[in-house]
Amino acid sequence: MTRLTTKFIENVKPGNTRREIPDAGCQGLYLIVQAGTGRRSWAVRYRYRGKTRKLTLDGFVTLAVARQRCTAALQQLEEGIDPAAAKFEAETLAAQADAEKRKNAVEQLAARFLEQQRKRLRPNTLGQVSHVLSTYVLPKWAGRNVSDVRRRDIIDLVEDIADERPVMANRTLACLSRFFNWLCERDVIEASPCAGVKRPGREQARDLVLDGNEIASLWKACQQVGGPSAASVQLMLLLGQRRGEIVGMRRSEVEGDLWRIPASRMKGRVEHVVPLPTRALALIEAQPIIGDSGFVFTISGRAPVNDPVALKRALDKHMQPKRPWVFHDIRRSVASGMASLDVPVEAIEKILAHRSGTFRGIVGIYQRHGYVPQMRAALERARRAARAGRQRR
Asked: Which helix (H) or strand (E) holds 284?
């Protein structure tokens, strides 16, 4: 037997067969050298209940560490424990714990959650939930067990988002509440960590109405950007429907000059019929038929266009807007434009599939033109003053 040294281990050469070199400096410790490759490892040989046993040490550690582990294994043997069996049991328990952790990992359960919600949520809502999880939640918590998420984690996450995007912070909290409540219903966790967490962002109803110049600029920008995504925005300008309803349009929903939006895609879960002006019909018919999904606004033919961030960035590049705007401002602007033309409010509500008294009604949210003569006169004076100001500049 040779008392192994670090230099000997570094210089040992592989033979034609696998070599086991005992260490005279530590009873039971063997240096294993594989034939051909020369790959080295450590093993401890001993007898347990009259039978020869072998314990392979994890990783190729230094000689000093190998001797320490060997000594610890032989100490277990003196206590009546089989070191190899103990290691196998520990590895099995660790593997089970790891499997359980993966099973209850945030990303695993989030995927199951989205799949189940696909049958319950409108496509637009499902898209928002999926966006929140993939953009704000999973990058932070991937690999983490859902049971380990605490209320402090929820607060830290949404407050970080609220620093720059307060509305999105509120949406993220709402999404997490839905997710953790879903876990509670399935007895995965006992209580939601979102309970008692207040919305971090202060929201105010938007009141931006695009003026004539801005609408013209947006239409021109759509023509410059081109493609089905930009065309869907043009149809929003013509019809005033929600973006999710527009981009999800299928050719089977168009019957002559009527567009029947099924209840499953409507916010109010009621079928909605929209009359299509000639220009809207022409815009729809101009879209190429791609695939057999029936989507009007599609690139792949399998799903509708759905990259609003990139689209907004492209449109803004051409528009160079002086005021920040969002796609939903188009809907409000269409409603206000119709009101300014003295279209009856009942007709506007019908077109927008909005009922008075719900969410404060059309007058409180979308329609910014009053019907009393005094308010109309004031707005007209403001319009003339703004036009005169532009001419002077």
From this structure: helix 278-285
Check if the beta carbon of residue 162 is closer than 8 Å to that of residue 152: no
The whole-number pLDDT of residue 377 equals: 34
**Cα 143 to Cα 154: distance, rounded to the nearest angstrom:** 16
Q: Can you give the CATH number for the domain in which 124 is found?
A: 1.10.150
Q: Which stretch of DSSP H or E encloses residue 273?
A: strand 272-275
Domain that holds residue 309: 212-248+303-392
Rounded to whole angstroms, the Cα distance separating 261 from 239 reads: 13
Q: Tokens for 50?
A: 């009259």
Domain count, the chain: 3
Give per-residue pLDDT as tens, 334-384: 888 888 877 777 778 888 887 654 434 444 444 433 333 332 332 233 334
β-bridge partners, 29 = 44
In this prediction the pTM is 0.53
CA distance 388 to 385: 5
Tokens representing 16 are 């034609």
**DSSP per-residue letters across 66-80:** HHHHHHHHHHHHHTT
Give dist(CA 374, CA 371) in Å, integer.
8
Half-sphere exposure (CA, 13 Å, Cβ side) for 52? 3
The whole-number pLDDT of residue 163 equals 84
Burial of 270 per CB tally in 10 Å (0-12, 13-18, 19+): exposed
